[in-house]
């Protein structure tokens, strides 16, 4: 390609960039006016955001992929929303955790993220209105449910407003090159077990595995001591300037974590929604069947069913159920009315759009 051709294309890009700037600012002005119309009400509308992102993917004809286009629009909406009112999102810190990555995936880079020292604390700051939303892990494809998040949802006044699905890549990180002199590996217990086959094959048995409160905390500890390594993701590696001795060491190649977004808000229907419920059965034979039956009879599809020991009594259980559809829809309304008669306890944790990106 000649220099002349190159500069023709660059001139074209400059002209397009001018149009993009104008169009983005037109879009932002509309968002700001929408913010004025909302007044002091809730500015974040996850159902609308899901519709915008789905539409962007459907309209896209390439060469950029639908996923890439949706990610760009996520950031555009994040910046537009910040003009209405900047949001603060609580997550299990310190900086660089997968929870923070999930918060940014859902709210974009214009939102402020607030690191909390536990999932409990992250719920508390939103309940106390010090932050607007909490993003908390709820299940991992390899390790299953995150019990603490499930337990907190039983009593919190917060509602689920959204879900974030994040591919989890773990790396072995260290301050210095090579494995010589390595005495211990820090990570969160879930990450240690997500990588345990790799660890068995690739590290001597005498290297201790130490579980700590988060992967980012593991990276912080590894950054202080050359005889330690950490298992953590890209953000933690970058934050603590660690070298990656081995990449993508998770045993399960599709290792994915699902996070929930919770806030003081009930979300309207987006057209493609999920509803999460927590139900408990009276302690007698066949009770479980009586819980599932009203859902099946009303044609409500169940995505997930997870049992957890109830805090109330020994050998009593609560069931976390995800179903398709919005709580305002007729099938779910009918099923919930029937469930109220047979269940010992039913709580709608929230209806929210199915993750688009
Ligand atoms: O439609 C709205 O309610 C807006 O505030 C605009 C907008 C957007 O940028 O498209 C921004 C934030 C909301 O969460 C949803 C959408």
UniProtKB/TrEMBL annotation:
Cell compartments where the protein resides:
Cytoplasm
Q: Per its UniProt record, what Gene3D superfamilies does this chain match?
A: 3.30.70.260, Chorismate mutase, Periplasmic binding protein-like II
| Domain Prephenate dehydratase as annotated: residue spans | 88-264
Record-listed E.C. numbers: 4.2.1.51, 5.4.99.5
User: Which ranges carry the ACT domain?
Assistant: 276-353
Is RNA-binding one of the keywords?
A: no
**Catalytic reactions on record:** chorismate = prephenate; prephenate + H(+) = 3-phenylpyruvate + CO2 + H2O
Q: What InterPro entries does the record point to? A: ACT-like_dom_sf, ACT_dom, Chor_mutase/pphenate_deHydtase, Chorismate_II_sf, CM_dom_sf, CM_II_prokaryot, G/b/e-P-prot_chorismate_mutase, Preph_deHydtase
Keywords tagged on the record: Amino-acid biosynthesis, Aromatic amino acid biosynthesis, Cytoplasm, Isomerase, Lyase, Multifunctional enzyme, Phenylalanine biosynthesis
Assign the protein's first listed, main location to one coarse class: cytoplasm
Decide whether keyword Isomerase is in the record: yes
Q: What role is this protein assigned?
A: Catalyzes the Claisen rearrangement of chorismate to prephenate and the decarboxylation/dehydration of prephenate to phenylpyruvate.
Pfam families from the UniProt entry = ACT (PF01842), CM_2 (PF01817), PDT (PF00800)
**Name of the molecule in the record:** Bifunctional chorismate mutase/prephenate dehydratase
Q: Which GO terms describe its molecular function?
A: prephenate dehydratase activity
UniProt pathway:
Metabolic intermediate biosynthesis; prephenate biosynthesis; prephenate from chorismate: step 1/1; Amino-acid biosynthesis; L-phenylalanine biosynthesis; phenylpyruvate from prephenate: step 1/1
